[in-house]
Amino acid sequence: MPTASANIGVVGLAVMGSNLARNLASREGNTVAVLNRSRAKTDELVALHPEAGFVPTFSYEEFAASLQKPRTAIIMVKAGLGTDAVIDELVRVFEPGDIIVDGGNAYFPDTIRREQAVRETGINFVGAGISGGEEGALLGPSIMPGGSDESWVTLGPILTSIAAVAEGEPCVTHVGHGGAGHFVKMVHNGIEYADMQLIAEAYDLIRRGTGKTPAEIAEVFAEWNTGELESYLIEITAEVLRQIDAETGKPLVDVIVDQAGAKGTGAWTVQTALALGVPVSGIAEATFARSLSSHPEQRAVAAHLPGPEGEFAVDDADAFIEDVRLALYASKIVAYSQGFDEIRAGAVEYGWTIDLGAVSKIWRAGCIIRAQFLNRIAEAYAGEPDLPALLTAPYFAEALARGQAAWRRVVVAAAQAGIPAPAFSSSLSYYDGIRAERLPAALVQGQRDFFGAHTYRRIDKDGTFHTLWSGDRTEIPAVDTH
Ligand code: NBP
């Protein structure tokens, strides 16, 4: 058996696990034990990176023996049954006070379940969202750990040592207890879906409205990346649009099949929001847009359905592009505001204390939605920690006021031209809905009371009321059911 020389271990050495292990090993003070189900990946990692000083292990017993107490292990395996299998093994060889971290993309109810089950053994279980893909894992991801305060004492310095850094601050915070970390990571991914869809709609509108080539539109995005839209996703959009396919000489974006894939985190975000009663329409439309794109059989039979007459061409390309930029920024504010609403609602539902400002700060580097914009969110929550709706913070309210006329012109142009812009238009509808003095929800309540006696409340007195709708309706008074 090896001596307990490692302060941290990684189980699962595919691309994410091996990169995370290398990141850990590169930081002063860390010695990293590694274990994989099949031996080949461990041998390869250790042979390729002698500088890392890994402690290779080939059984769970050896792995446990190589770790100093409290033993701390990060699991990086495919989320699901593999995670449960690895947890079972670690629980078998670990002791009370040790720490098991799941760094995979687990669905947060699974994390809640696992945390409760593992806690009964006296071992700590931490679900940690890790964002940034392969490169982030290697160079510095944004890390969203949940779990107990006790585990954070040991884990905090280790995760801080490998996290991305934004303006001198590490992109990791103890998000909250239980499944809070994976919940926040889930919403991060949902926001990512919305951000990507909004950018895609902006590209489509500009291309079809101005006739610019992908390479020319790449320059538009590169220019946008110097202003308030500055973000990783805008930056890589310019790179993707510039890319020429080596085989055909065409823009690569025109060669790629237009069916967007998904690994499910967008759907989880929307399902959870539905259960919590939080409208995340931007994220939902982005998720549905991927679904719509991925049904070629439906798209083929619907292709002959008529659209508007004539070609779509804007008179003033520069003015239209500026309108699209403002519409994109306004829609992005709505999508992020909705995502933060979902985190707040999740925290209330599950009893977590989550600092929304701290969450926005750890997304400023290392993760896919990293953006200058997140500083504005942090400022908004610093000014008012209990802000009921992010989009009402002074900075965002001003940006929406500045952009709303352009936003409306873009949504109208898209509708008239027959260009789908579901995320732009649903975000605008949300904006108009949330700011409305009075909504037709009153009529919906009347309908519900009519067919189901669901009752309603009145604007002029307290209580719950039901109307006897049948018979001579003009003479039937509302009945207080209390
Ligand atoms: P995979 O998701 O492909 O996981 C496979 C690895 O887990 C293999 O090395 C496999 O061993 C090992 N494993 C062990 Br140990 N026990 C296992 C078991 N009982 N069942 C199945 N596999 C087992 O690795 P990945 O792409 O590196 O992703 C790791 C996690 O990180 C996932 O949860 C993923 O969602 C998450 N994540 C990925 C990204 C990304 O950008 N790729 C970003 C953020 C998070 P073997 O060699 O014997 O098959």
Automatic annotation (TrEMBL):
<dbReference type="InterPro" id="IPR013328">
    <property type="entry name" value="6PGD_dom2"/>
</dbReference>
<keyword id="KW-0560">Oxidoreductase</keyword>
<dbReference type="InterPro" id="IPR006113">
    <property type="entry name" value="6PGDH_Gnd/GntZ"/>
</dbReference>
<feature type="binding site" description="in other chain">
    <location>
        <position position="193"/>
    </location>
    <ligand>
        <name>substrate</name>
    </ligand>
</feature>
<dbReference type="InterPro" id="IPR036291">
    <property type="entry name" value="NAD(P)-bd_dom_sf"/>
</dbReference>
<feature type="active site" description="Proton donor">
    <location>
        <position position="192"/>
    </location>
</feature>
<comment type="subunit">
    <text>Homodimer.</text>
</comment>
<feature type="binding site">
    <location>
        <position position="448"/>
    </location>
    <ligand>
        <name>substrate</name>
    </ligand>
</feature>
<protein>
    <recommendedName>
        <fullName>6-phosphogluconate dehydrogenase, decarboxylating</fullName>
        <ecNumber>1.1.1.44</ecNumber>
    </recommendedName>
</protein>
<feature type="domain" description="6-phosphogluconate dehydrogenase C-terminal">
    <location>
        <begin position="181"/>
        <end position="470"/>
    </location>
</feature>
<dbReference type="InterPro" id="IPR006183">
    <property type="entry name" value="Pgluconate_DH"/>
</dbReference>
<feature type="binding site">
    <location>
        <begin position="36"/>
        <end position="38"/>
    </location>
    <ligand>
        <name>NADP(+)</name>
    </ligand>
</feature>
<dbReference type="GO" id="GO:0019521">
    <property type="term" value="P:D-gluconate metabolic process"/>
</dbReference>
<feature type="binding site">
    <location>
        <position position="105"/>
    </location>
    <ligand>
        <name>NADP(+)</name>
    </ligand>
</feature>
<feature type="binding site">
    <location>
        <begin position="12"/>
        <end position="17"/>
    </location>
    <ligand>
        <name>NADP(+)</name>
    </ligand>
</feature>
<dbReference type="InterPro" id="IPR006114">
    <property type="entry name" value="6PGDH_C"/>
</dbReference>
<dbReference type="Pfam" id="PF03446">
    <property type="entry name" value="NAD_binding_2"/>
</dbReference>
<dbReference type="Pfam" id="PF00393">
    <property type="entry name" value="6PGD"/>
</dbReference>
<comment type="pathway">
    <text>Carbohydrate degradation; pentose phosphate pathway; D-ribulose 5-phosphate from D-glucose 6-phosphate (oxidative stage): step 3/3.</text>
</comment>
<feature type="binding site" description="in other chain">
    <location>
        <position position="290"/>
    </location>
    <ligand>
        <name>substrate</name>
    </ligand>
</feature>
<dbReference type="GO" id="GO:0006098">
    <property type="term" value="P:pentose-phosphate shunt"/>
</dbReference>
<feature type="binding site">
    <location>
        <begin position="77"/>
        <end position="79"/>
    </location>
    <ligand>
        <name>NADP(+)</name>
    </ligand>
</feature>
<keyword id="KW-0570">Pentose shunt</keyword>
<dbReference type="InterPro" id="IPR008927">
    <property type="entry name" value="6-PGluconate_DH-like_C_sf"/>
</dbReference>
<feature type="binding site" description="in other chain">
    <location>
        <begin position="131"/>
        <end position="133"/>
    </location>
    <ligand>
        <name>substrate</name>
    </ligand>
</feature>
<feature type="binding site">
    <location>
        <position position="454"/>
    </location>
    <ligand>
        <name>substrate</name>
    </ligand>
</feature>
<feature type="active site" description="Proton acceptor">
    <location>
        <position position="185"/>
    </location>
</feature>
<feature type="binding site" description="in other chain">
    <location>
        <position position="263"/>
    </location>
    <ligand>
        <name>substrate</name>
    </ligand>
</feature>
<keyword id="KW-0521">NADP</keyword>
<keyword id="KW-0311">Gluconate utilization</keyword>
<comment type="similarity">
    <text>Belongs to the 6-phosphogluconate dehydrogenase family.</text>
</comment>
<comment type="function">
    <text>Catalyzes the oxidative decarboxylation of 6-phosphogluconate to ribulose 5-phosphate and CO(2), with concomitant reduction of NADP to NADPH.</text>
</comment>
<dbReference type="GO" id="GO:0004616">
    <property type="term" value="F:phosphogluconate dehydrogenase (decarboxylating) activity"/>
</dbReference>
<dbReference type="InterPro" id="IPR006115">
    <property type="entry name" value="6PGDH_NADP-bd"/>
</dbReference>
<feature type="binding site" description="in other chain">
    <location>
        <begin position="188"/>
        <end position="189"/>
    </location>
    <ligand>
        <name>substrate</name>
    </ligand>
</feature>
<feature type="binding site" description="in other chain">
    <location>
        <position position="105"/>
    </location>
    <ligand>
        <name>substrate</name>
    </ligand>
</feature>
<dbReference type="GO" id="GO:0050661">
    <property type="term" value="F:NADP binding"/>
</dbReference>
